[in-house]
Write a structure and sequence with these properties.
Serine Threonine Protein Phosphatase 5, Tetratricopeptide repeat; globular; disordered N terminus; about 500 residues
Length: about 500
């Protein structure tokens, strides 16, 4: 039997070596490792990667730096105290460039060649969002040369002279592509809007307004936001579900599944209070509470934060991970399947309020602030499970409310400063969970009207200004900055 087997094996080997050459063609090509894909599927992959950029590790870190969350254990205790290094952000740099920029660049190139302007426009918006977030967090980054696959060491573009003008021009190009109506839509392959070009156009305008706010071009931001997202139905959301290692809300996954106990919303080292600053502003039991006769923040506080005491992972206030999908009564802000709003109607309204105030005056700012309050007075973005059981009130403000001694001006400010402070504070509590509050804190750090930075700091007297470039990029790109900017080195856009 053994001889017969060996004989047959020998014949088989002989056949392999003497058969037609085509048998061994592409022998090293793995049929399960695709080197190409239809454009819509590439778009889906790029959008998934961008979800990680908008919700992932760097965003959690700057939330801890912004008075939204706090580090409780292991590395996150260090991160919250501004102790980060280049190795902490390698994967995040990869998400931006390999996950989003390379894929969307391929889509834009291929779609443009065949006249598919609608999908090219969507890809340009996704790319502009990822690069915009990256420059807001890291500072000068590669972009103009990073989209050229032939360049191995792309230059780090300066923010003010190159990056922001390029981003705004790209969003204008995207809007023109989408408005052209040329080409097919990606349909369900677009996980955000299902290919709805009107929604993408509005989101592009809101993103443009966001970047103009960074530049302090308030007149430009106001103009752009007037064509931005006009209802909550147009929010750009990251869809989530209940599949572990699949589609969970990323903050839920971190707080509950991956690193339970590492991050909460409790106090810093000084032991002076119970909550991070944003929670103090929303909690009616705290002296810093921002409510008044026309504002009740109870439902929003309960929605954003969970006070489970001894039943919690850290024994302190935590981001609210309560989930109906887990059999509980409420859906908190980071419920297991809670969608994440990365560009929203709420943001657009608050851009209109601040930019309108700064460029058009008091009446315009108040009008748009009241539009936001009217939205919140119907429940706004708070989950209905909380608005059904907890009070919330956001009545319209009047001019007199901002006069010295008015309900929105108990501290003796001018009416203009009181309105601006109300808008800034509203933006701050609305942006919990995103990196947008971190943007505002740096943008306004030299202004007369700003949030009290000393109560947001977790240690020392310096406010952090950026995360650190990934070590892999520093090692491999000869154009990487040297010396490498540290956490407290201000970036150009927020000077």
């Amino acid at each position: 039997m053994k001889t017969n087997i060996l004989y047959k094996l020998g014949l088989a080997v002989l056949f392999l070596f003497t058969a037609c050459e085509s048998i061994v063609d592409d022998l090293n090509v793995d049929p399960n490792n695709a080197t190409d894909a239809p454009i819509p599927l590439i778009l889906t992959g790029a959008q998934v990667a961008n979800i990680t950029v908008q919700e992932g590790h760097p965003v959690r870190v700057v939330n801890m730096w912004s008075g939204y969350y706090n580090g409780a254990d292991r590395q996150y205790l260090d991160y919250a105290q501004y102790n980060v290094n280049a190795g902490n952000f390698n994967g995040d740099w990869t998400d931006v460039y390999q996950g989003v920029v390379s894929q969307t660049s391929l889509i834009i190139e291929r779609a443009s060649e065949i006249g598919e302007r609608q999908i090219a426009g969507i890809a340009k918006v996704v790319q502009a969002q990822a690069i915009g977030t990256a420059t807001e967090l890291w500072g000068d980054i590669p972009f103009t040369e990073a989209i050229n696959f032939e360049i191995n060491n792309p230059v780090f573009d300066p923010q003010m002279s190159t990056l922001y003008p390029t981003l705004i021009a790209q969003l204008d190009d995207a809007i023109a592509d989408l408005q052209s109506g040329q080409g097919a839509t990606p349909g369900d392959a677009d996980i955000h809007y299902g290919g709805n070009r009107d929604n993408w156009i509005a989101a592009a305008y809101t993103l443009k307004a966001r970047y103009l706010m960074d530049m302090k071009d308030y007149a430009g931001a106001y103009t752009a936001a007037q064509q931005g997202i006009s209802s909550a139905d147009g929010d750009l959301v990251s869809p989530h579900g209940t599949i572990n290692d699949g589609n969970l809300n990323l903050t839920y996954s971190f707080v509950v599944v991956d690193r339970a106990g590492d991050m909460d919303a409790g106090i810093g080292e000084d032991g002076a209070g119970d909550h991070v600053y944003s929670a103090d502003l929303l909690d009616p039991a705290q002296p810093e509470y921002r409510g008044n006769a026309k504002t009740d923040e109870t439902a929003r506080f309960r929605y954003a934060f969970l006070d489970a005491g001894g039943d919690s992972y850290t024994g302190r206030l935590e981001p609210n991970y309560t989930s109906v999908a887990n059999g509980e009564d409420y859906n908190g802000m980071i419920a297991i399947d809670k969608d994440f709003r990365s560009v929203s109607y709420a943001e657009n309204l608050l851009i209109l309020a601040e930019a309108g105030f700064r460029s058009q005056g008091f009446a315009t700012g108040l009008t748009h602030l009241n539009e936001f309050r009217a939205y919140m007075n119907t429940g706004g973005y708070i989950d209905p499970t909380y608005t059904a059981d907890f009070p919330f009130v956001y009545e319209a403000y009047e001019d007199a409310d901002f006069s010295d001694g008015g309900i929105a001006n108990p501290g003796g400010m001018s009416a203009d400063d009181a309105l601006l402070m109300e808008i800034i504070e509203e933006r701050y509590v609305t942006f919990i969970g995103t990196h947008l509050g971190f943007n505002d804190l740096r943008r306004l750090q030299d202004e007369n009207v700003k949030l009290p930075m000393d109560v947001i700091l977790t240690r020392g007297s310096q406010f952090p200004q950026r995360i650190i470039y990934g070590q892999d990029e520093l090692n491999s790109n000869t154009n990487a900055p040297s010396p490498v900017p540290g956490v407290f080195e201000r970036m150009e856009i927020y000077q």
